[in-house]
Specification:
Blueprint lengths: L2 H11 L17 H12 L20 H7 L4 H13 L22 H21 L6 H25 L2 H16 L15 H5 L29 E5 L3 H12 L4 E9 L2 H11 L4 H8 L12 H7 L1 H9 L1 H13 L3 E13 L10 E3 L6 E3 L3 H6 L3 E8 H15 L14 H8 L12 H10 L4 H10 L8 H8 L13 H4 L9 H12 L3 H13 L2 H17 L4 H15 L5 H20 L1 H10 L5 H13 L4 E2 L11 E4 L5 E4 L10 H14 L5 H7 L7 H10 L9 H6 L1 H17 L9 H4 L11 H12 L12 H7 L7 H4 L6 E16 L5 E9 L2 E7 L1 H7 L2 H4 L3 E10 L2 E11 H8 L2 E6 L5 H10 L2 E12 L3 E6 L8 H9 L3 E6 L1
Parallel strand pairs: 1-6, 2-5, 7-9, 15-16
Antiparallel strand pairs: 2-3, 3-6, 4-5, 8-9, 10-11, 10-13, 11-12, 13-14, 15-18, 16-17
Helix pairs in contact: 2-10, 2-14, 5-6, 5-7, 7-9, 10-11, 10-14, 12-13, 13-14, 16-26, 16-27, 17-26, 19-26, 22-23, 24-25, 26-27, 27-28, 30-33, 31-35
């Protein structure tokens, strides 16, 4: 309808007019950035022609512009203000609306909490506090401390009106544990509560580790308690379903969250819609500091990082990426559900707040975000999924299968084997302790007690990390601890005079200045927020309290300043202790049961080939065997089995192979369980469901070696795929029509003869294996050059970290096969490339500049084993490498000589051997033949001339009938 028609309709029906402008962005300068944002939202590229587009006129026009546009209808502009006033809405704060917890008749929630907590405490004391060596009097004295703390906490909880909250949390955690769902030992300040420990909400003894209840629930500051609970990530949803069923599906909802475009995320999104290569954008993103605790904006990152500035100046595409990124940073990207937050109400939620339906979930979602649901009176519970708990659970299942039972709550915290492993920095896969920086700290610290792990969890963060050297020096008695005052030695002795924890700040205020722990918690909060007026009042109270205890005023003021400095980044000890316990548990499992632990880790990373390759390298380092995928032995996920020697080994998972799919592998495993192992290829083909197993999946299985136990010639099996699929389709049709099969006799009678074909060469076999697995599994192309690499003193990339620890640039010889390459053009028109290579110890990347790229470009297309000379240096936790020279290992081998010794069983291979050697180029290598002489002796002879026998030729010689051995030296 035209504007004229709308006006006529409005006047005819006596309806008011309103003037609008469809505004999508603030001003015209935002047009290009908003256009990119539209592409992000719709998953298209800026360069795409057939996509939604706006114009610069879709900006937010000023009142003056709108008045000018609608000069003939001034009342239409006036009415926009009328509508705006009618839309005003303010949320009214309400008291928390917790559902009533069902209690026995005649018993209040407080009485139920007291009864259950008291019983739980006695159980905890009996199993985790008392020892057989303790006498009755000692047990009673010890128990008195716990019982008094329990009564104090219950009184506070009851006075604040939160018994129901504790009972609700305890109920669903206890249900989860009874259902066999792994639950974390605690998270956040809740681990400081004896009531929580007694109700099995947490699994850490607060008194043993000096954890404070007031850090969780301050009697001097009314606020809701907030338990964050970690569940096994695979079964977290079961616990949420239990809560829905118990309290009503209409009273339980997830919480909405709005994803914003943060610095790195906005670069990735904008880079994608601009059509930039992922690897290039990823490299730019990694120059933006990542600190979730104190996020750095793009503008700040560019100001700090000279490489970003240089990229922006040299490359117009990078400049455009950064410019658009800065304009979009901070905007909302999408709505989704909070990773953990769930609200439980005492009434249907639609009576209280508006709800939203997430298309990916059948559970209602609040339209209010975290901050506002609590204002609206809804109580939040955090159900977090922690992958590490799933890893631990699977490890324990593997151990249970071979008769080893481990009770995690009773795990000894003084296992010497565990601390020895930590001291070596062997923490790949260990929760919280596996980064390269943390491994370096562990080697310097040599932890020997659980308190060291707690301290590391708290210290290894920006800011407090600066105190790690002092902590280590004081632990090893290289420096003397500074306790600030004799009264504080008992508080700071555990951390060698370094104030690490927020709880220490509270205890210092209590002991030195007479604060109650509630008041001390208020001091801690004030120090964290750095509010000047509040800090002055707190300083006065602190100093006056200390002076009253005999501390000189100047010293008291100095101590306040020191405590204030540490409090700014002090860590919650309750959280650090709880996560240190999970770290210790994973370290214990790795130190004592590495095969089961690493199998569990690998199963949780089925689709992450980079992580699987890193774990495979860890297995190699530990000299543990990774068995190849096998159609008759592999599970859907990684499994543990015993080898012929009785050693434990990990069997590669079928579902970890590329292009096979978890569901198809589950069906395959079910058929194998039902009908027994597959006897041969045709038995396999006749039993699989051809509707879920296709040609591409078979190709991947064959190339990975999964059929080697049925037929070791992969080339032959690969060539027979069409025949196998035909057999499978015929067998499937027979089953679906319930007909007698034409193939009911033995499979041998009707087996289609396999094509006569020679096995792939080693290089081809490994290339195909790489395509199916994602990395070299059974061997590496460089293995054929082992002697040469040793002779040239080539460095394994895994050893570079140690070699470059001093931070200097070093020229290093590396070997590798290329697995990826991204070429770029600088603003000056020069081509350069980032090249990814692999050696037997890992994957690495080198920067190749224009001149070398032009000279060695063909080598980077061939996929042959290379020798790369690089200049390498450490930058943070990463190694940066620039290539200086690239050549093939075959060419280097021809130049450097060496000796190949060929042992023959008889004269049969001599003619073929002659032909193979004559095809090779002349080089610097020596060839020696060892032939049998008589029945017991041998004769050795050197062939005239010098040769360059390639790895392919050496392999071909080894295959000749009558050749016993080909050995390099």
């Amino acid at each position: 309808m035209t504007e004229e028609g709308l006006l006529d309709l409005a006047y005819a029906l006596d309806l008011p007019l309103v003037a609008t402008n469809e505004a999508f962005f603030g001003d015209e300068a935002m047009f290009e950035a908003h256009d990119a944002l539209l592409c992000v939202a719709e998953g298209v590229h800026v360069a795409d022609r057939d996509r939604r587009r706006l114009t610069p006129e879709h900006r937010f026009k000023s009142a003056g512009e709108m008045r000018a546009l609608f000069a003939d209808l001034p009342e239409a502009v006036d009415n926009t203000l009328v509508i705006a006033k009618r839309c005003a809405f303010l949320l009214e704060a309400r008291e928390p609306m917790l559902p009533a917890f069902p209690t026995p008749e005649g018993e209040s929630e407080t009485e139920t909490l007291r009864r259950l907590s008291a019983a739980g405490l006695e159980q905890r004391l009996a199993t985790q506090v008392f020892t057989d060596a303790m006498e009755a009097g000692e047990k009673e004295r010890l128990a008195k401390r716990y019982r008094e703390r329990l009564e104090y906490e219950i009184d506070v909880i009851a006075r604040m009106g939160y018994p129901g909250y504790f009972l609700i949390v305890a109920d669903f955690i206890q249900w989860a544990k009874q259902a066999g769902i792994p639950v974390g030992p605690g998270r956040g300040s809740g681990a400081g509560s004896v009531v929580a420990w007694s109700l099995t909400i947490t699994d850490l003894d607060p008194l043993r580790f000096g954890l404070l209840f007031e850090r969780f629930l301050n009697p001097e500051r009314i606020s809701m308690p907030d338990f964050d609970i970690d569940f096994c990530q695979d079964r977290r949803d079961e616990v949420i379903r239990y809560v829905q069923e118990k309290y009503g599906a209409d009273r339980v909802a997830q919480i909405i969250t709005f994803g914003t475009l943060q610095a790195r995320a906005v670069l990735r999104d904008v880079g994608r819609v601009l059509g930039m290569a992922y690897g290039w954008v990823d490299r730019i993103c990694k120059l933006v500091p990542y600190n979730p605790a104190s996020p750095v904006s793009l503008e700040e990152a560019i100001a700090r990082e000279s490489r970003l500035q240089a990229m922006r100046e040299e490359d117009s595409t990078v400049a455009k990426l950064l410019d658009i990124g800065m304009k979009l940073e901070g905007l909302y990207r999408h709505a989704s559900t909070h990773a953990a937050g769930v609200v439980i109400s005492d009434r249907p939620l639609d009576e209280t707040i508006p709800l939203y339906r997430d298309p990916r979930s059948d559970m209602p979602v609040t339209q209010f975000s975290m901050k506002y649901v609590e204002t609206a009176g809804l109580v939040k519970f955090d159900f977090l999924g922690l992958k590490t708990l799933t890893v631990i659970a699977r490890t324990l299942d593997f151990l249970k299968a071979r008769g080893v039972e481990i009770d995690l709550p009773l795990l000894p915290l003084d296992d010497a084997k565990t601390y020895a492993m930590l001291g070596l920095g062997d923490t790949v896969g260990v929760f919280q302790l596996e980064s390269s920086g943390m491994r370096d700290v562990l080697k310097r610290l040599q932890p020997d007690c659980f308190e060291d792990i707690i301290a590391l969890v708290a210290l290894f963060r920006p800011g407090p990390m600066d105190n790690i050297p002092r902590y280590i020096a004081c632990k090893h008695r290289e420096e003397n601890p500074d306790y600030l005052h004799p009264l504080l030695e008992g508080i700071l002795k555990e951390t060698f005079g370094v104030i690490i924890y927020q709880e220490q700040v509270m205890q210092i205020a209590q002991v030195l200045s007479g604060f109650s722990l509630g008041a001390a918690d208020l001091l801690r909060r004030a120090m964290g927020k750095k509010i000047k007026s509040e800090m002055e009042a707190q300083r006065q109270n602190f100093v006056e309290g200390a002076v009253a205890k005999g501390v000189p005023k100047a010293q008291a003021s100095h101590i306040f300043e020191q405590v204030d400095k540490f409090a700014g980044y002090g860590f919650n000890k309750s959280h650090a202790a709880a996560y240190a316990l999970v770290a210790y548990q994973t370290a214990y499992l790795k130190a004592n049961h590495p095969v089961e632990f690493l199998a569990a880790l690998m199963s949780l990373d089925l689709n992450n080939t980079d992580k699987l390759n890193a774990l495979r390298q860890e297995l190699m380092r530990l000299k543990l065997e990774l068995l190849p995928p096998d159609i008759n032995r592999s599970g859907v996920v990684f499994t543990v089995e015993r080898t012929e020697t009785g050693e434990a080994a990990i069997r590669y998972a079928l579902a970890a192979l590329k292009n096979v799919g978890v569901h198809a592998m589950e069906l395959l495993a079910e058929e194998r369980t039902r009908g027994g192992p597959f006897e041969n290829l045709y038995d396999f083909a006749s039993r699989i469901d051809s509707r879920t197993m296709n040609k591409r999946q078979l190709e991947s299985l064959i190339q990975a070696g999964a059929f080697d136990s049925l037929n070791a010639n992969r080339a032959q099996v690969f060539a027979a795929i069409d025949k196998l699929m035909g057999w499978a389709n015929a067998a499937q049709q027979d089953r679906s029509t319930q007909q007698e099969s034409l193939f009911q006799e033995s499979t041998e009678s009707f087996a289609v003869a396999l094509p006569e074909i020679e096995e792939w060469t080693m290089m081809d076999r490994l290339r195909r294996e790489y395509e199916a697995v994602g990395f070299y599994l059974s061997a590496h192309p460089l293995d054929a050059y082992g002697v040469l690499l040793e002779r040239l003193q080539v460095t394994a990339v895994a050893d570079l970290f140690d070699r470059l620890a001093d931070g200097k640039t070093e020229r290093v010889l590396l070997a590798g096969t290329m697995i990826g390459k991204q070429e770029r053009t600088s603003a000056r028109g020069n081509r350069f490339a980032f090249v990814q290579l692999s050696d037997s110890s890992g994957v690495y990347e080198v920067l190749v500049f224009s001149e070398l790229l032009a000279n060695a470009g063909e080598l980077l297309e061939s996929g042959v084993p290379l020798l790369v000379t690089v200049d390498a240096r450490m930058e943070g936790d990463a190694v940066r490498m620039a290539a200086q020279k690239i050549e093939t290992l075959e060419k280097v081998e021809a130049k450097t000589g060496g000796q190949v010794r060929i042992r023959l069983l008889d004269e049969r291979p001599i003619e073929n051997l002659k032909q193979l050697i004559e095809k090779e180029k002349r080089g610097e290598g020596v060839v020696r033949l060892v032939l049998p002489y008589g029945e017991t002796e041998e004769v050795e002879m050197q062939l005239p001339g010098k040769f360059a026998l390639s790895a392919t030729t050496r392999e071909a010689i080894q295959r000749l009938p009558g050749v016993a051995e080909v050995r390099e030296s």
